[in-house]
Amino acid sequence: MTTRTAKAESAPSTGPTEAPPSVGAGRPARRGPLALLALLALGALLALLVLMAVHISQGTATVGLHTLWRAFTALWSDSGASGQADAVLVASRLPRLAAGLVVGCTLGAAGAALQSVSRNVLASPDTLAVNAGAYLAVVAVAAFGITLPPFPAGGTALAGGLLAAGIVLGLARAGAGPTRLVLAGSALTLGLSGLSQMLLLLRAQQTTGLYAWGNGSLAQIGMQTIDRLAPIALMAMIGLVVLGRRLDILALGDDGAAVVGVNPRLTRAIAVVLAVVLSAVSVTVAGPIGFVGLCAPAIVRLVGAQVPALLRHRVFVPASAVAGVLVVLGADVLLRAAFGAQAGASVPTGIVTSFFGAVVLVFLAYRSRDAGAAGPAVAFARLRSRRAFVVTLVGATAALLTAVIASTLLGDAPLLLGDVVNWLTGRSGRFVSFVLDTRMPRIAAALLAGAALATAGTVVQAVSRNPLAEPGILGVVGGAGVGAVITLTVVPLASFWSVGGSALAGAAAAAVLVFGLAARRGLEQNRLVLIGIGVSAGAAALVSLLIVLTDPYNGTKALVWLSGSTYGRSFPEVLPVLAALSVALPVLAAKRRELDLIGLDADTPRLLGIRLGTTRLGLLGIAVVLTAAAVAAVGVIGFVGLVAPHAARALVGRRHGRILPVAALLGSLLVVVADTIGRTVIAPAQIPVGVVTAVIGAPYFGWLLWRSKADR
Predict the structure, then answer these.
(1) pLDDT tens digits, one per residue of 369-380
(2) 159: which of 116, 259, 443, 582 lies 20 to 30 Å off by Cα?
């Protein structure tokens, strides 16, 4: 396969991209590429040495390079180490540098291997949920007060990573394009992250410090973990290099590999296991540092477009490892240079790599070729009778009323219906009044936010003609979160209306970015989703950075905001959501015909006189306002905008005049039930509503991917 063909098919250029030199070409024809490879290796080595020198000189203690060099030489002499410089070198800077080297090598090599076996340039330990699975396994062990030495901890992370990778690859196997893989990995990552956050909140004392570590931190206490796990990483990398020839042949396709005697299934399994071993070592050493496994092979592949020999796996894997080290150390150096040594000690390095990795993901998605629909079309596929619609509407309304009543009565202080009646008539006691005065605004916030997110999801799916799109996946929720958190961190006592306005501005900016980039290449479905996932990841990294920089000791605050919560809400704070819904629902009801037609294709609306661009922009504006209002009220909640429209479409058919009210009711039902579960299962402690919706929504999302796979 030539390089040009590989690019046209959006397949990873990790295998041989050009035919090998012929025998008659002679040695002189081969000296050029070898000399260029040697020059590249020398340049990478020099850059690495410079980065290492700068990295080891940074820190809170004022220790110069000359002093550190004397201390380093003293460590290997008979006189031994002494003095402040020696202590800084041994206890802090060398372990941090060693962690950066190990993490960069392992994630870079793991990303290269995963991209090769999946034939997908967007595969990495992040997009395959390997890091999330390994992190959940480590957190689960720590949450029950179990302290493991490095080897058992690495084995635990390995088990979690292997399980997550197996699930994602199983869901995505039938989809040749990159979208299915990234969607499956993102969904599973959200679900596993929700479980991890639940454990962090429920077992706060046992998991102290794991929030910052969960974003990827190079800070180390000594070299014990690195000394024990580095040999394992080295053996796994050697295994991938030895496997390089088979991976080159595997790039030709399963049939071509089988013809020349290479078992594709066995080769792929061995490569995945070795890649997950490398990821498990990285997570055990420094936590899940994001997107290094995506960026490092992408950098090597860009250089490899000019030097094809660099893309042969026996060179590609080590080169990706070196690029991974440059990315990790570069991010750590940039972090401490931009925010100071003290901030560098408290801000996880993984936040920086996640942000730049999100930029790389957006870039790769922008350049990729659309591979077709990500799932079943949103257009008319099946109609339901009017009777079925009425029955569904009545049933959803009854279920929502039941959920609201149960949510009102249940909680850390159970109540009776008589207590509620007395409260409504103003005859309740002080205790009942206090409970309901705090509980009812929470229920109202959950009900209205669920309806707003579900309605916004319905609109986004119709406008994008993508059944797997929703405000959270497309980055709109993340943008609203960034806007709100910026206001909260800059002006801690800002009014709710200021926070809401900032959330609206952030959501609008994210929507303009995502749809603007996607529209420049035709608003193709897969590209839209991939760009949205990248923007969402970048927004999450920015939110974490803002919270950690302004309040580094309050990890719970970050978790609650990023997970979504109705805690402490008042009735005035839900008025914007009510106002947005009151305006949006009648407008959308009037535009139901346009929603139906836009969901068909790009040509039919134009033939029927609909101004497609203007209509799309107006509908997206409504979705952005609804999303911003919901985020300002309850924080970041995912999957509601995906689950509710899908369930409504399955129940009442494809007409948006029927989908909109049912989706709004189901969205309210989902968030109210999730909030009730979060308030009651471990009362008086609470689980954020977004964590519960993630745990519910991730399996449903996976089922949608599996069903769309079966429909192909």
Answers:
(1) 554 444 444 443
(2) 116
